[in-house]
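Researcher: Structure for this, please.
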Amino acid sequence: MTRVIHTGDTHIGYSQYHSPVRRQDFLDAFEAVVDDAVDDGVDAVVHAGDLFNDRRPELRDLMGTISVLRRLDDAGVPFLAVVGNHESTRGGQWLDLFERLGLATRLGDEPVVVGDTAFYGLDHVPVSRRDELDYAFADHDAEYAALVAHGLFEPFGYADWDTETVLTESDVEFDAMLLGDNHTPDTARVADTWVTYPGSTERASASEREGRGYNLVVFDADAAGGEDRVEIRRRALDTRPFVFVSVELREGEGESRVRERVREFDLAEAVVHVEITGEGDPVTPAAVEEFANDEGALFARVTDRRQVDADGEVDVSFADPEDAVRDRLDELSLSTAARDVERAVREDAVPDANVRETVKRRVEERLDEDGGLDAFEAVETDARAGEGGDGEAQADAGEPDGDESTTDEPDAESDPAETADPDPASNDGQVSMEDYL
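Model: Predicted structure, token format:
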């Protein structure tokens, strides 16, 4: 019997709503999964991609992740993972570096046997590159086999990847596919194989209303009375509360009615989303957001659907107009270099007179392949010291040029205001793989 925790889409480093508290929430959720793994004594933690929200995570996010992975390693629990579309780079992957540090195993076409189960991996591959895949996996002699993959697979929502093709063309007969990318947890049977998503570990958008969690997967012929070789159990995580308030205004009702409705909920340290419909008087979203914050909310956003429906406009909070720009950028298939250029042009930290030189330097940095692992190992050393103080056919088929997911994925870029020049020696700058390769 093999018992593993199946998780994914942890999106560490995501400053949702530009909030440092929410940024910490995403790391805390991953740490909670690891706590459960250690306490329960599972055989492995299997991560199905998007460990990080960005291919250029900040140093604090790297250090926090290393600290959590070291705790898992100290407990003797292997961390098996694949690369997701949010964190994928053109060169080496962060997961490769964690593997070199002895903190993770990157799954691929060779089996990694844990207990009596062989695990294989399939990183995210853009739709345009999938015709190149041959799903050729090395043989194994374990009792069970599982494929860990990142993508939008059938028969789940927004699917663009034929699951049955993967299973029928594969050289290995899989008992389960443990997936990541879709933030909604779900399980189905395809070609006599269990296919499952654990969902994200934190709510990355307001549409993710269900509670967050992960899967406990048991590979055992007797797990379900001998009828199944795989048993999948859903486990919940205690994450930041989200409060959803719907207000339908009648004629003559306005902001006072909205406030009255908001008061009916416990807003303490919660992320609050208020949606207004009906025929009532005009309401100022910013005033309601301020009221909710005064009532104890961590963050509040108000959407007046009457105005949105009338104007046909995008849902944009006046309290956070930067989100409109970021959402639009996420719809574009921009390369990593293009995103660097965009940040240099838009971010306030770069004076207009220096934009041309900054763009030139960042493109040159992208082309520079010098460096080594020593610098990253210094990060791991800093993480150890900071714990008590201040602190390409399959998997390598290429990097997605943009976030191709149409599901409820969080923004692919960090807060532009926080995106300073990457400096591996700085504790508050973003770090790219190119700084270490």
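Researcher: Any notable elements?
Model: The longest strand covers residues 242-249. Residues 35 and 109 are 29 Å apart (CA to CA).
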